[in-house]
Amino acid sequence: MGTLPERRNIPPWVKVPEDLKDPEVFHVQTRLLEAMFGRDGCRIPYIEQVSKAMLELKALESPDCTEIVVYGSCIYKLRAKWMLQSMAEWHRQRQERGMLKLEEAMNALELSPWMK
């Protein structure tokens, strides 16, 4: 995901100001953002609607991590945080497995008998 999407409005299910207090905050590896949220964050509105929470992505000083801030009522923001952390872990493991398969394939090519 090249640039982080900018927040333009507050979804109707978020109550102002009470749901904007005490957000849930966590960090995700930046390389997982596109897999989780789609190109340019196109899936964020859907995830917000399903979770009944509001998401805000913030760039950190380290380009390797992005901060995700979740606003909403207590139960919805905790559920959204859990869902997003689960998605991030799933995508991280999927990318790791892909890299391991690639590494195994490269090793197999280097070690094949006809190469010796």
**Average pLDDT, all residues:** 86
* Low-pLDDT regions: none
Helix content percent band: 40-55%
Helix run count: 3
Distance between the termini: 42 Å
Number of strands: 3
Radius of gyration: 19 Å
Measured by DSSP, the beta-strand proportion falls in: 15-25%
Description:
Involved in the maintenance of embryonic stem (ES) cell pluripotency. Dispensable for self-renewal of pluripotent ES cells and establishment of germ cells. Associates with specific target mRNAs. Keywords: Cytoplasm, Developmental protein, RNA-binding. It comes from Callithrix jacchus. It holds the Pfam family MOEP19. A hairpin with a 5-residue loop joins strand 2 and strand 3. The model has no long low-confidence stretch (mean pLDDT about 85). The chain has helices at about 35, 45-50, 75-110; strands at about 25-30, 55-60, 65-70. Strands 1-3-2 form a 3-stranded antiparallel sheet, with helices on one face. It is elongated. With about 120 residues, the protein is of the alpha+beta class.
Summarize this entry quickly.
It is found in: Cytoplasm. With 116 residues, the protein is α+β, with helices and mostly antiparallel strands.
Ordered list of secondary-structure elements with their pairings:
Elements lengths: L23 E6 L3 H5 L6 H8 L2 E6 L5 E7 L2 H38 L5
Antiparallel strand pairs: 1-3, 2-3
Provide key terms for this protein.
116 residues; alpha+beta; three-stranded antiparallel sheet; 3 helices; 3 strands; 44% helix; elongated; RNA-binding; developmental protein; KH_dom_type_1_sf
